[in-house]
Amino acid sequence: MIVKIEVKLKPGHFDPEGDVTAKSLRDLGFKVEEVKVSKVYTLNLLSGNAEEAVNQAKDMCKKLLANPTKDNFTVEVLGLEKADNKKS
Amino acid sequence: MIVKIEVKLKPGHFDPEGDVTAKSLRDLGFKVEEVKVSKVYTLNLLSGNAEEAVNQAKDMCKKLLANPTKDNFTVEVLGLEKADNKKS
Amino acid sequence: MKLCDAKACVLRVGGTNCDAEIKWVLEDLGLSTDILHMNQAIKKDLADYQMLVFPGGFSYGDYVRAGAIWSREILTKLKKDLEIFIDEGKLVLGICNGFQVLVEIGILPGDGENVSGIPTAVLANNISAKYECRWVNLKVESDRIPFFGLLKKGQALQIPIGHGEGRFILQSEDALTELIKNNQVVLRYISPDCAAAEGKYPNNPNGAVYDIAGICNRKGNVMGMMPHPERAYFGWQLPSWGKELPKFGDGKAIFESAVNYIKKY
Amino acid sequence: MKKQIIKKVNARISLRMIDLKAADDRELKEISSVMGLALSLDEMKALKGHFSTMPTDVELQTFGQTWSEHCIHKTFKGDISTEKGTIKNIFKNFIAKATKEMNKPWCFSVFEDNAGLVDFDKGYVIAAKVETHNHPSAVEPFGGAATGTGGVIRDILGVWGEPIACSDVLCFGPLDTDYKDLIGGVKHPKYIYKGVIAGIGAYGNNMGLPTVNGAILFDKSYTGNVVVYCGCYGMLPKDLYINKTQEGDLAVLAGGKTGRDGIHGVTFASADLSEEADEQRSAVQIPNPLVEERLRRATLRLRDSRLCTGITDLGGGGISCATGEMAYRSGLGLGVNLSVVHLKEKDLAPWEIWVSESQERMLYSISPDRLEDAMEIFKEEEVEACILGRFNKTGKLTVIIQNVIVCDLDLNFLYSPPTVMRFASLVETQIKKCDLPEPNNLEDELLTLLADPNIRSREGVIRTYDHEVRACTAIKPLQGSESGPNDAAVLKPLKDSWMGIVISCGINPFLQDPYWMAASSIDEAVRNNVAVGGRRIAILDNFVWGNPEHKDRMSSLLRAVQACYDFAVALDVPFISGKDSLYNESPLGPVRPTLLITGIGMIPDIRRAITAELRREGNPIFLLGTTKEELSGSAYLRSKSAEGGDCPTVDGVLSKSTMDALTLAIDKGLVASCHDLSDGGLGIAASEMVISSKVGMHIDLTKVHSQTRRSDFVLFSESNSRFLVEVEEKGAKEFAGIFKGLPACIIGETTKENALSFEDLKGKNYGVNATQLRLTWRGY
Ligand SMILES: Nc1ncnc2c1ncn2[C@@H]1O[C@H](COP(=O)(O)OP(=O)(O)O)[C@@H](O)[C@H]1O
Ligand SMILES: [Mg+2]
Q1: Domains of chain B
Q2: Active-site annotation holds for D550
Q3: Which residue, among D314, D345, D301, D298, has the nearest Cα to D251 in the 3D structure?
């Protein structure tokens, strides 16, 4: 089961990387107000059951990937295919 | 317009961060094969038009956010609402 | 040019941190050196300088990618001046983060003159995914560039590295062949007994393709390298003093070559 | 609590007033707890008595911060009741007293400022400070450790020092702890270990500061209480040191924005860790080294252009403590306008802005006519700065926000908290006898110890810290072509001087007698320093203890402090700075009493520094010091899960003479290499020297000047004040002469073969080649 976990700063938390990125984009001529940066982990869980996969992923966030002090996370099941093959 | 840009390693590129994350997760007792890490920039573009926003975002990737040697990117328009309010 | 008329400029922005050491060694060699913040540099004329150094550090916190933000700032603020500088055959040296900046801005490897802002290579995360601080062994691959005037092709050097993103990679095999053919690969990682590192850790500390530690532009007046020669300048900086403490380290020849080039220029 | 006690008075700026007069004792306690003040009933009563009108929440929070254990060191300055009478102010009467009695002319500033200052060469002084950041690191390892480093770097900036190096000493629970043994929100040591190390590395590396010295320890008692010591060392020209804030000067706040992160960090640090650790997250600050890097540049430029009259860092207590301290130490008052502070988020209550511990901020006092120049520097360095207020003669701390006065306090009262009373017993620790059968293969024992988590190589950690940046690290944490261990780091900070700074540490929490534990830590810190050629050593103390309101914790603290006085004086090493962190308790129990001693020495010429790398074959090996049957708490006994035995003691006079003689021998050029004996004793020290080298060593245990008949005890005793020295063959006579009357004897020689061989007391021979030693020690 391919699962996608996004770990992002909680609302209200100041995002220094986003801040610097926004400034650089503006320097390059883009009109952008605010940028938030988050991290996405795409992983293949052995579990074949979506619900179980989500629970496992949430547990991973709690134990390693997210920091309750500053991060929120979201979990999404992408299905059984390989993540790499998805294109926008 | 809220736009979400995901910058990820091209297929076949070795992902050290993902590799280490996978190892740590396995240490914690999770059964996981491979982890891929990518970065997501969520930004608010002044443009009110989705197509234009996507074009702008792609241009940002070319000019700053992605390095063509190693990165692919995908762009997604989240609509007009604030990204922070989205929950899983 | 008489050395007393020549000047080097070490650029910096928030997050840069190896500027003082570089000034120290350049001035030790008699080359007067200014350290300029970008905010000061845009008010000055780069034409007053014979050498430009992009030092190590974590410019802008290495956000987005190592060197990316600073490189775009140069693009928007110093593009013209820098192109002229390189075109005139003056020296540009990028060390560590400075190398990352030169790659991100598209000067290296490139054709050497184009400040395009579109990189054709990258210094990616070390294979170990860790920051690595260690002394590495290097082989000089070209002695025809201004920075290596005092070195011989095939010579081994010992210089330390300190980086988390130093794995040099190119877009294709062809790009690598091209780079080698044009003699643009100037430094490669080797083992302590001078055998090829063949990508193996820790001799190749980051997994760079073809064990590349440093490259130059076609003309050879722009060089980028991951190791820090300014940390291997004096003998007392070496990790092992052996039976007798040497006066200087291997890094000295690189700076001295540059200074000699400026004298002749 | 009766609703009326806490009253909202101003919804627009969310200000509340607290009716202390109407509160009874129970309610006073409740106020303290609801508002997160962590003040005791006595302290609340003192406040009740002080205020004639209702204090605001901003005012009460100011007391919560300023009167906290972290800011004012209540326990160290309080009264201790013992069976032999009351002992007052152990800080002044033991720690500071030692320094005062020694009265060293080279101590430029001690205990006064953010960091201790001692003379160096060419008109420069060295600044040194070590801090702890334990609670935050337990809750959020990466951020906690990173901000620990960030904070101590600002302590150096806060005395106008240019930071030049960092150090870190870390104590974790065993990495192989079973998940089942973790209760009450305690995080797994592995998670904490990775996070803390990444945090220290990230901050130091990003700041371009080499992390050059440290230690890592593992013990069960640290599972719930990780201990994170962060040190920073800096340099400044003496004549640029200034701290003379004048009336009329402006208070300028610069650096990062102020947010809700790190609210109540101070009161948090002064209370036990509870099971709701994750709920205490707002107390953990968020690191941003990029901002600190700019702040450093700006601060040093302000210093060099002499634009300021005073400086202090914002650490515990945020703006409230920094402004109060700066005004109080200059005998002035200050009016603060909180409306100008740059915020990370809107809708912060005044008290939150006031006590927030957001990182990377500094406070300066600047005369109005230099303001413009100063602001120009902030602008060029891209540092946000605002004018908080103006110093006046009132002796009061006044705060307004949006034209409302929210705080008006008398500084004298604020800085005269009630004295606390603690209880301790002076009864000495009893340690039982040790009955360990003698092993039959010493090689197995040696290899087991070499691989012990507390002894094995730290290369995997050290290499993730940049220790070469700034290009002034002469003796590195991993030395030689074989990356062997070192006793101390040597830095060469000035271009035009060969003089070096020597940084070392000593820590022995496994010794059960707190008195000898402290004595051993001091001896070790000094020993490590002397081993590389350091001298004129100053030391820093950092206490990490459990809740001092318990008698047993307080008793061991008292014993340790007594040893601090005794052995600082005996070894002639003054304390110049330090810190205590108490209340290190978790649901798993209290932390082991842990005292870190950091040594700051100097060496006249770094080219004469000594390392542990053996130089050449055929040189005699001397063992300095006496080997006693002192194995209590030793790595050897612990590896066998055995206890008891005698605690290593220190003979101050002998230790000092030995070290002085060694320094003399080094200066005469007689010493080829040297290593101090500590964890694992002679066996480990000898192995480490071979590991570092291209040659080998042979030693004969019968030649060791010892008071034990067992080979394993000779090999693994952890008696203090001992060194293993390779002496240049032609200088052996002269060397022996220098040590006349002192315990020093030749126990072997260096050999051509890269191996360690030794003969035990029964004549049995052992030999281990260096490849195997390295494999065992490094794990690869
Ligand atoms: N237990 C202690 N031992 C030695 N020095 C101490 C101790 N506690 C505080 N000091 C010293 O007193 C001075 C002021 O301490 P403190 O206010 O805690 O500093 P800061 O808040 O900057 O950390 C510092 O120089 C500090 O080193
Ligand atoms: Mg302080």
Answers
A1: 2-81 (3.30.1280.10)
A2: no
A3: D314
Q: Ligand 1 center to residue D231 CA distance, Å?
A: 13
Which stretches of chain C drop beneath a pLDDT of 70? 111-113
Integer Cα distance of D242 and D321 in angstroms: 20
Give CA–CA dist D714/D630, Å, rounded: 10
pTM: 0.94
Q: How many domains does chain C have?
A: 1
| Cβ C184 vs Cβ C212: under 8 Å | no
Using an 8 Å Cβ cutoff, are C75 and C60 in contact? no
Instruction: Go through the domains of chain D in sequence order and give each one's CATH number.
Output: 77-81+114-419 (3.90.650.10), 610-780 (3.90.650.10)
Mean pLDDT (chain D, rounded): 94
Residues 6+ apart with CB under 8 A from D504: D213, D487, D488, D489, D525, D526, D528, D529, D532, D534, D598, D599, D601
Query: What is residue A87's predicted lDDT score, i.e. its pLDDT?
Result: 40
CB atoms within 10 A of CB D440: 9
Q: Which amino acid is located at D484 in the chain?
A: G
Name all residues whose Cβ lies below 6 A of ligand 1.
D 73, 76, 91, 95, 111, 113-114, 116, 155, 315, 541, 543, 575, 577-580
Would you call C228 a catalytic residue per the annotation? yes
Distance (Å) from the C-alpha of residue C25 to the closest C-alpha of chain D?
Answer: 10
Q: Name the interface residues of A facing D (CB cutoff 8 Å).
A: 12-14, 16, 20, 63-64, 67-70
Asked if residues D193 and D117 have their Cβ atoms less than 8 Å apart, the reply is no
* Coil vs helix vs strand at D220: helix
Chain D residues touching residue C134 (CB < 8 angstroms): 463
Contacts of A10 (CB under 8 A, 6+ apart): A70, A71, A72
* CB-count burial class (<10 Å; 0-12, 13-18, 19+) for D616: middle
In the numeric block, the tokens 């990370």 are attached to D344
Phi, psi of A29 (to 5 degrees): 100, 5
Choose from C65, C170, C174, C212 for mutation: most chain B CBs within 10 A: C65
pLDDT for the residue B52: 92
Q: What is the pLDDT of residues A4-56, one digit of tens each?
A: 999 998 877 778 899 999 999 999 999 998 999 999 999 988 877 889 999 99
Q: What is the pLDDT of residues D139-169, one digit of tens each?
A: 889 999 999 999 999 999 999 999 999 999 9
Can you give the residue range of the structural domain that contains C95? 3-264
Residue nearest to atom 23 of ligand 1 (CA): D114
pLDDT tens-digit map of D11-64: 788 899 999 999 999 999 999 988 889 899 999 999 999 999 999 999 999 999
pLDDT of residue D1: 59
8 A C-beta contact, residue D195 and residue D242: no
* The pair of three-digit structure tokens given for residue D472, joined into one six-digit string: 């002034």
pLDDT digits 0-9 by tens, D481-500: 899 999 999 999 999 999 99
B9 → chain A, closest CA residue: A84
pLDDT band at D276 (very low <50, low <70, confident <90, very high): very low
**pLDDT at residue D98 in the model:** 98
Res B80: pLDDT: 75
For the CA of D71, the nearest ligand: 1
Look at ligand 1, atom 4, and give the residue with the nearest C-alpha. D578
Residues ≥6 apart with Cβ < 8 Å to B7: B38, B39, B40, B41, B61, B65, B66, B71, B72, B73
Task: Count Cα neighbours of C107 within 13 Å in the Cβ-side half-sphere.
Answer: 34
Q: Are D264 and D316 in contact (CB under 8 A)?
A: no
Q: Establish whether this prediction's ipTM goes over 0.95.
A: no
Read off the pLDDT of residues D253-268 as tens digits, 9 standing for 90 and up: 999 999 887 776 555 5
Contact of A25 with chain B, judged by CB distance below 8 Å, is answered with: yes
Tokens of D618: 């055929």
Q: What is the CATH number of the domain that holds C149?
A: 3.40.50.880
